[in-house]
């Protein structure tokens, strides 16, 4: 709950006096409040450090340890204080949360220790204030990644071989952990050596050597000593092919292995050779073949099996892929803009080298990289990541927090009603488990219900009731008029905003590109529902049809689990902020804040 | 395209909070209101010193500047109703569009406690300057919790009389009743029809408007309420709130 909600409850209850003249029914009795009204100071001893605070301060958050009766377990009768054997430094922050309503994350503390303290005191980390939330999330993500890596490393480390492992498993282990056996180590170094040889050979064969006798032109070494280089290349490729096939054989999951990055690099490194073997000595094709030889340079990436550093570089690149992507995108945008400008600026000039826009690309790229505009981009990127965090992460967090808070209050109240309806005799049992705050809050909501003569439900029950009422409507046509009227009233109440719904459906069909199947379903449902014969009361005919349509659609939409829709277009945004009639997808409020798996369409 | 529009709308919406923030900062530096002395407040209200202390501590915690503005007030009041305020609605929708890969909508329920909170705010803000000081707050509470029956009824009358002309007409009553029904939210049982508030208003006028002139005066209101036994009993309900 938000800060100080418990403090303002008396005010909210007092304000309920304004509802009384409108109340249709008598108000429920207020909860009996036995607790003393005067505020008292509580003493909390955390590992020797004594804190004092008002009882009301702690009562602000009744779903935490300190705000609920759970703290009584820690009460020490002799010293008349609550004793916690926890970190007093952390407790300071926890207590400040109660006092100010904002939970701050101390940057110098370990994230795990902080999480444990929060878990102990029953505080959900989502309540961390906006000021500290980014830091918290970054640290948490970092920590989780590190833990994941550690567990991975631990699993892969030099654990003793399980007995009775097949030769295949042993071979795989030898490949993954060369340190386990001498053979593996030898193989490891041999492959490393050949990778180096191969790369050096690639480089050296382009160096111009002294021309052979009888020729003037300088030849690259590759052509002079063609046979030698060819033999070397063959040897390397043989070793690599052998290694790849061995790995493929030994891999526990061949498909997974073939999809992994390293195996792709392996394949790319050796393919050019085989393609070259197969390729005929054709002038046209050899051009393409030469291009393929470029891929031989990827052999250098095979070193990443040998070097931890290269792998870490790879992970780093992967983790900041989105920022890199943005960097590239912004660079491209800048290049295009400037190239276009240069092209059109120099268009009239004779002898201009900017013959086309792509021709000006080169100029722009060179200029930008020379002048260090890439540095500007990095600055941009840093700010972009800040802005990204501010806008999107914070909003996401705030959204989650709001949803959690609402879920908390909604579920608590509805649970209370369920319990009350279920066992109206034994309310005493239920009563004890709820805090005074909850009692009073629920009493307030109960008063509102009595004022309006309607009850709170949640959307699940609401849609259920709607469906049952529409079914009941159809079957009760033969009953007496009054009950019909009653049922009709219920079902008219079921889906009140029929005109808006129709507009909404039109809007939905036009702007939201629902998948083909569901659009068809909508159409067929529409046809089906309007074919139901109208009511006897002519005045309610139109209403009945529309209602059926609406309830039927509700029936339909409640069954859909998820439909991917593109973001709303301008028509949505231009609508006034009244209850928007556009069908949206309501995330399942029962799920926790961060699971987005189940979504449900709720039509309004 | 949608993402672009979403970004644009995001920006416009982002500007508003920052403006509010600067406004709040200005408010804090310029207006730091201190209430009158404890003794004076004790004399003017029906609260004891201790109760005033408790009230002030809560008030000051929430509003360190010493005044509550309408936004904060609405925000506080909305916390108590399950489906919460609608103020987050559009901001969240536009932002989540850009967040989610699956591009699903998020839709918070459309219950809205803000209209009733608005009228409540006006009822507390007796000086009509757009903010509630602690004194206003405490005086209002004193009437509601510790006042005589007549005082409570007068307060309620002033709550309903939106334009402070001394009469409650149908439009004002409809506004109030709609605001109250809005607090229920959409998911109710039985489900809300479009004109249930109107029926409610009609019933109210039936009861209150003695001379059928279409408006309810203070006297009519007080007399009608005093005749209503159940309401009189209900008025005692909230006395032990503090």
From TrEMBL, chain A:
SUPFAM superfamilies: POZ domain, Voltage-gated potassium channels. The chain crosses the membrane at residues 183-204, 224-245, 257-279, 324-345, 357-376. Keywords: Ion channel, Ion transport, Membrane, Potassium, Potassium channel, Potassium transport, Signal, Transmembrane, Transmembrane helix, Transport, Voltage-gated channel. One of its GO terms (cellular component) is dendritic spine. It is found in: Membrane. Residues 40-139 form the BTB domain. Residues 143-165, 477-496 are annotated as: Disordered. GO terms for biological process: action potential; protein homooligomerization. It comes from the Eukaryota. Pfam families: BTB_2 (PF02214), DUF3399 (PF11879), Ion_trans (PF00520), Shal-type (PF11601). GO terms for molecular function: A-type (transient outward) potassium channel activity. It is a multi-pass membrane protein. SMART domains: BTB (SM00225). This is Potassium voltage-gated channel, Shal-related subfamily, member 1. Residues 1-16 form the signal peptide. The lineage of its organism: Eukaryota, Metazoa, Chordata, Craniata, Vertebrata. Its main location: membrane.
UniProtKB/TrEMBL annotation, chain B:
The keyword Repeat applies. It holds the Pfam family EF-hand_8. Residues 112-147, 148-183, 196-231 form the EF-hand domain. GO terms for cellular component: voltage-gated potassium channel complex. Keywords: Calcium, Metal-binding, Repeat. GO terms for biological process: regulation of potassium ion transmembrane transport. Residues 1-22 are annotated as: Disordered. One of its GO terms (molecular function) is potassium channel regulator activity. It comes from the Eukaryota. SMART domains: EFh. PROSITE patterns: EF_HAND_1 (PS00018), EF_HAND_2 (PS50222). This is Kv channel-interacting protein 1b isoform X1. It comes from Stegastes partitus (bicolor damselfish).
